[in-house]
Amino acid sequence: MADETIGVVGAGIVGLATARELALRRPGTRVVVFEKEREVSLHQTGHNSGVVHAGIYYTPGSLKADLCVRGVSLLREYCQDRALPYREIGKLVVAVREDELGRMDGLYERARNNHVPDLRRISREEIRELEPHAGGIAALHSPRTAITDYPAIARSFAQDVVDSGGEVRLGFPVTGVTEVPGGIEVTSGQAGIPPAEGWGRVRVDRLILCAGLQSDAVARLARDEREPRIIPFRGEYMLLKPERTDLVRGLIYPVPDPRYPFLGVHFTPRVDGSVEVGPNAVLALAREGYTRTRISPRDLLGLAAYPGAWRMAAQHWRTGIKEYRGSFSTAAFMKDAGLYVPGVGVRDVVRGGAGVRAQALDRDGTLVDDFRIHRMGRVTAVRNAPSPAATASMAIAEHIVAAVFEDGRASRPL
Fold first, then answer.
1. Could you give the CA distance from residue 306 to residue 301 in angstroms, rounded to a whole number?
2. Which of 6, 154, 264, 307 has the fewest Cβ atoms nearer than 10 Å?
3. Residue 399 predicted with pLDDT over 50
């Protein structure tokens, strides 16, 4: 239908990629992005480590696997076209113990099924050729794994939306989603306080929710299912001191623990020349809890009232204690890092930044691994889009837009 108005809630990289895809694929459609902050990509996108994942880790046939691999090619082409940073510096997934070799081989087969390009197993000696300071007894080498600047990409997406005749409304926290005849009414404002003229109430024909850390709360406004809930995990980083960044040439990762959707402490060169070490994964005490002192009583009460949170804690409390120990002790944090670059320690790093991961959790305590997208008539809600969502953002956008308009090109129905 021509001359529709499509709303997108959330100006992170997934929301902006979706808005851009709408504007490009459906000429004549008016696209409006609603964002509660005063700038785009302030939360998960703005705290992203910048890795363009090749698709090594994800279950073949899952949305993560399909959309990550597709997303890499789209993102590479976009960055080249817009002169945005995109550097294929390569990644090593390193086994440091014999009991990790079986899991590493399993990753290799998974990556082959996902068509990860140029991946190969390498020996201890080959590790040293690529990374002279690295440890490990064997590794997977992914030479096409890249780094980029996701906030810059998100800003470019936002400009594309505007250039296509769309709008990015900043400072517009969505507080109501109401079905009205022939459409959806999106409202912003507090009860009893009239919103600013022209900013408090917008009617759209369809609405797509890409609200990240607030995705379950915003979805409830649209009367979506209560599960999964978002549980915020803070990832804290160290930075190698400038004089020690030469210890690392590319990305150095551990063989991940299959029980968790987190990849463990790793070494990540950034496009600005810095090198991050981390992250850990500790339960944040606020959805936007980027520091240990940021506490939200409302978020904590919501967490305490959710049975899934208690079931998760009962299953994983030992790992939680270990992660918190690293949060408070630089020596404990760097103990694991030293397995992958022997000799690196407390004296070589300073405290870096932190990000918060919007991790979906089911009622039974299961950490949701795959992307999860719900559709409720005129409203589509992205309920779980953790890493590699930034890598896959343009492919996620294709998938959502194709499925919303039922043109048969989505990789699977929502």
1. 9
2. 307
3. yes
**What contacts 24+ positions apart, CB below 8 Å, involve 323-326?**
323/280, 323/281, 323/282, 324/282, 326/236, 326/265, 326/280
Question: Rounded CA gap, 381 and 376, in Å?
Answer: 8
- Alpha helices in 222-353, H assignment, sequence order: 297-304, 307-328, 330-340
Say whether 202 sits in a helix, a strand or coil: strand
Question: In whole angstroms, what is the distance from residue 2 CA to residue 100 CA?
Answer: 55
Choose which CATH entry (3.40.50, 3.30.565, 3.30.530, 3.30.9) describes domain 229-367.
Answer: 3.30.9
Question: Whole-angstrom Cα distance, residue 204 to residue 180?
Answer: 10
66-81 in b/e form (b: 16+ CB < 10 A) is bbbbbbbebbbebbee
Distance CA 11, CA 40 (A): 5
Residue with tokens 């994964």: 281
The three-class DSSP label of residue 412 is: coil
Q: What is the pLDDT of residues 224-248, one digit of tens each?
A: 998 999 999 999 999 999 999 999 9
Contact 392, 64 (CB under 8 A): yes
Query: CATH assignment of 5-46+151-228+370-404?
Result: 3.50.50.60
- Where in the chain are the domains? 5-46+151-228+370-404, 91-143, 229-367
pLDDT at 403: 85
pTM above 0.85, yes or no: yes
Say if residues 86 and 146 touch (Cβ distance below 8 Å).
yes
Q: Which of 38, 200, 72 is nearest to 148 (CA)?
A: 72
How would you class 117 by CB atoms within 10 Å of its CB: exposed for 0-12, middle for 13-18, buried for 19 or more? middle
